[in-house]
Amino acid sequence: MMEREFYVLIERDEDGFFVGEVPSLKACYAQGKTIDELLENMREVIELCLESQEETSSVLEFVGVQKISVHDKLANA
Known about the structure:
Helices cover 29% and strands 16% of the residues. It has one helix at 35-56, and strands at residues 9-12, 18-21, 29-32. Strands 1-2-3 form a 3-stranded antiparallel β-sheet, with helices on one face. A hairpin with a 7-residue loop joins strand 2 (18-21) and strand 3 (29-32).
């Protein structure tokens, strides 16, 4: 069995839960009350995503994250 590594993007939602996404796997999301819980859940979800991807398509290559600034007209309303 080959070990693989994946990048997990982590955000905190409005309820305080940590939400993770693996951008290189389609529809690969999980959440947790703590970072540790999130990462444990992500490992399980990644395994499931890899099983389903074997049947459908190849894994995408994660390139990076960029920060972009835009004017938010609704923020001042």
